[in-house]
Design goal:
12-stranded antiparallel sheet; 14 strands; two-stranded antiparallel ribbon; alpha+beta
Length: about 270
């Protein structure tokens, strides 16, 4: 099954509106893919839709690896795989980008900045892109609330949050208050109940009505309503399964991004 790891960033020094996105789309297209093998790098395409620009950053990496020759002997050969990473620039100034070990975040930011330099006026400054290292706790509670199954949780600030909108029972509140006095954080995993399944923590009253409502979530791991596994952390890192169809993949990623951007300050 296809999957993605997403992180977020913010364009700090420009008002990102529809006109900016039109120029950014033009910038990605003009930048294109540059240099020669094995050092080609750039943007394979750019698509302007709705309130975002969608592009794909590509980078070649020269590697040596063993293969079997015709005599079935191991020999070293050079390969040049290309790694592509999806990027979305939104009208509110936020950037969602796919991340992996093969492509560094700084490389993605530099390429976006270099592309913008093609279309910016001499009187305009270079792009100032800042990583988002922390998202609103409401985002994690939204992912929790809209999930079908939750299999793991990391919780801090136990008992420090006001319940909203439903108030737990006095028994639950007393248990959480006791945990608050003696516990700094909690990490919970659902019990394995089958070959590929775990118990649903949303069905456990003390977690669903107590810890989740009255504490801060650091990480939520589960399965969403479309049956895609996901993990979201307070740092803004999201891992999610995706459909195989490219258009459905794009729509799923947009859906994930909108849930995070809903609570990020513009």
């Amino acid at each position: 099954m296809a999957s993605i790891v997403l992180k977020f960033a913010k364009i700090k020094n420009y008002k990102v509106d529809s006109a900016f996105l039109d120029r950014m789309n033009d910038a990605f297209k003009k930048y294109g893919v540059r240099h020669k093998p094995p050092k080609r790098v750039g943007f394979k395409f750019s698509l302007r839709e709705g309130d975002y620009v969608y592009t794909r950053f590509v980078k070649e990496i020269k590697r040596k690896m063993p293969i079997l020759d015709q005599a079935n002997e191991e020999v070293e050969t050079t390969v040049i795989p290309a790694f592509g990473k999806k990027i979305f620039v939104f009208e509110n100034g936020f950037i969602a980008y796919e991340t992996s070990m093969q492509v560094y975040t700084g490389e993605i930011f530099d390429a976006i900045t270099d592309a913008w330099n093609i279309v910016r006026a001499d009187t305009e400054g270079k792009l100032d892109i800042e990583r988002v290292d922390k998202i609103d706790p409401k985002t994690l509670k939204l992912f929790y609330a809209e999930s079908k199954i939750v299999v793991a949780l990391k919780i801090k600030e136990i008992g420090e949050k006001e319940p909203n909108p439903n108030v737990p029972s006095e028994v639950i509140k007393d248990i959480i208050e006791d945990a608050k006095e003696k516990t700094e954080s909690v990490q919970i995993k659902g019990k394995i109940v089958g070959v590929k399944s775990q118990g649903n923590l949303k069905e456990v009253q003390i977690f669903d009505e107590g810890f989740v409502r009255l504490s801060e979530l650091e990480e939520v791991k589960g399965v969403d309503r479309e049956d895609f596994a996901f993990t979201i952390s307070k740092s803004g890192r999201i891992t999610s399964g995706l459909p195989e169809d490219p258009e459905k993949q794009k729509n799923k990623i947009i859906q994930l991004c909108k849930k995070v951007l809903k609570f990020l300050p513009v």
